[in-house]
Each structure stands twice: as structure tokens, then as C-alpha cells.
Design a protein that fits this description.
CATH class: Alpha Beta
Oligomer: single chain
Radius of gyration: 19 Å
Order of helices and strands: EHEHEHEHHEHEHHHEH
Strand order of the largest sheet: 3-2-1-4-5-6-7
Distance between the termini: 55 Å
Structural class: alpha/beta
């Protein structure tokens, strides 16, 4: 391996859950562009198939295949794993991106929002990873570990509830699980890292990013002055999954434009003026 191909993913097979839209699709495009064969799955099989067609039409070196898969139930995970095993005898990259959120003001937040969000965002992520370990171990080696990339959130790092209490707590759990699994799977030559994104354009954040004016106002609150772009996700995925990221595990990578280091107003600003 030389510095000129540190991010080359030719010959690798990846699974991206929730890969038809949003951050999952951005990641799938980045992996495909680097030469990987990318399987994308979500509850909406038709959307995944259409996304695969759209990405393949871009002419990248890799190839994308889309099909249905539900990470929200134990039965759905069993079916998804069966379908993945039917398509591949090894898995170099697993991106646990499928997730959901729930927003309501404090005082109105429903009990059911905890079960639904934690079941998919935490239990589903863990169980899918556990079930796919044999395929990941088959691909793993001392020189080139298999990779697990979990999608957390800057809301799991900083106290930004923003009415999405179960979502923020679930992403904090994802970050902690990432560190635990990184420790436990290192001797199997599987790295486990997480992304902690800030605001990106997606269906989940449509209330804040679909309208251009609202998106600009939201972006203005980010230290770097904008919401995330597709290449921000594509680039970090190519890094973590390529040889350049082979020696990194247990990291929570902030892809948030600096929100992760915000600490509020300067305490002594009034004294300086």
C-alpha cells in the first residue's frame, strides 16, 4: 500500500443500512466512488433499488445493490442477514446507519417514543453487528481489518436535546457501544468507529433543512457556518474504510462543523469590553 491509494476500496464489499436517503446514501456514494461493492438496505425496498440505480448511473468504479431490510425487529434482522449472506460470503464494511427520531416538547414527550427509538437505534444496531460478525471476521486480517462504522450524532456528545430526548440518549448509547465493541473486537481484527454528525440534509432533518432559507439560518448557528454536505460524509467514510484508517478504532469522529467543541458564550466577555 502506498500513499496514493490509501482510500482505494476496490474489491471490498460494504453493507449500509438506511442507505437509500440522507447520510446513508451519502456514505454509499462515497464507498462506491472509491471502488466498493455496496449493498444498501432499508424498510423501503423500492427506494433502495431506485437509489442503487441512480448511483450506478453516475459511472463510479464500484457497484450498488439495493434491497429491503428492517433493523427494527429481531425477525427483520434475521431476514436481512440471510439476504446479505446470499449476496456475499464476506463483509469488509458494515455501516450501521438506520435510525429514527421523535421530537416533542418536554412535558408532552410520550413513553412509547423511548421504546421505538432505542429499539432501532441501539438494540437493532448491536444485534445486526453481532449477527454479521462471521462475515466480518472472514474479511478481516492483520494488515486490513474489517470495519464497522456506527452513525451516532453530535447530540449524543453535547447536551443538545432539541426536543428529541430519546434520540439524543440513543446516540450517546451508540457512542458508548462503539467504544465497547472496539475494545472487544480488536483481537478479531475488526475496527469499530462512529460518526457524530451535525445537521445534514435528510428526511429526518427535513423540518430544518428542506427549506433553503431555514437551512441557511440553521447553518449560520454552526461554528463553520453551514450544514453538512454529501462530500463531508463520503470523505470520512473513504478515510475510515481505506488503508488510511486501518489503525483507528474506538473513535467518535465529529462531522459537525465544530458543534462538538461549542461551550457557550465567553464567560468573561463583559470584562473585556
Amino acid at each position: 500500500m502506498t500513499p496514493e491509494n490509501l482510500f482505494d476500496l476496490t474489491g471490498k464489499t460494504a453493507l449500509v443500512t438506511g442507505g437509500a436517503t440522507g447520510i446513508g446514501r451519502m456514505a454509499a456514494e462515497g464507498l462506491c466512488a472509491a471502488g466498493a461493492r455496496v449493498l444498501i438496505a432499508s424498510r423501503k425496498a423500492e427506494a433502495c433499488a431506485q437509489a442503487a440505480d441512480d448511483l450506478n448511473a453516475l459511472g463510479y468504479r464500484g457497484q450498488v445493490e439495493g434491497f429491503g431490510g428492517d433493523v427494527g425487529t429481531e425477525e427483520g434482522i434475521a431476514v436481512l442477514c440471510r439476504d446479505v449472506r446470499a449476496r456475499a460470503d464476506r463483509l469488509d464494511i458494515l455501516m450501521n446507519n438506520a435510525g429514527t427520531s421523535w421530537g416533542m416538547p418536554l412535558g408532552q414527550f410520550p413513553y412509547m417514543a423511548w421504546d421505538r427509538v432505542m429499539r432501532l437505534n441501539v438494540a437493532g444496531l448491536f444485534h445486526l453487528t453481532q449477527e454479521l460478525l462471521p462475515l466480518l471476521e472472514t474479511a478481516a486480517s492483520d494488515e486490513d481489518p474489517a470495519r464497522v462504522i456506527n452513525v451516532g450524532s453530535v447530540m449524543g456528545e453535547t447536551p443538545h436535546g432539541d426536543r428529541a430526548y430519546s434520540y439524543a440518549a440513543s446516540k450517546a448509547a451508540v457512542h458508548h457501544l462503539t467504544r465497547i465493541l472496539a475494545k472487544e473486537l480488536a483481537d478479531r481484527r475488526i475496527t469499530v468507529n462512529a460518526l457524530a454528525p451535525g445537521p445534514f440534509v435528510s428526511k429526518m432533518t427535513a423540518f430544518a433543512t428542506a427549506d433553503e432559507d431555514v437551512r441557511a439560518r440553521v447553518g449560520a448557528q454552526v461554528p463553520l457556518g453551514r450544514v453538512g454536505r454529501p462530500e463531508d460524509i463520503a470523505g470520512v467514510m473513504q478515510f475510515l474504510c481505506g488503508q488510511g484508517g486501518a489503525y483507528i478504532t474506538g473513535a467518535i469522529l465529529p462531522v459537525s462543523g465544530g458543534i462538538n467543541v461549542e461551550t457557550g458564550p465567553d464567560l468573561f466577555q463583559e470584562a473585556y469590553e
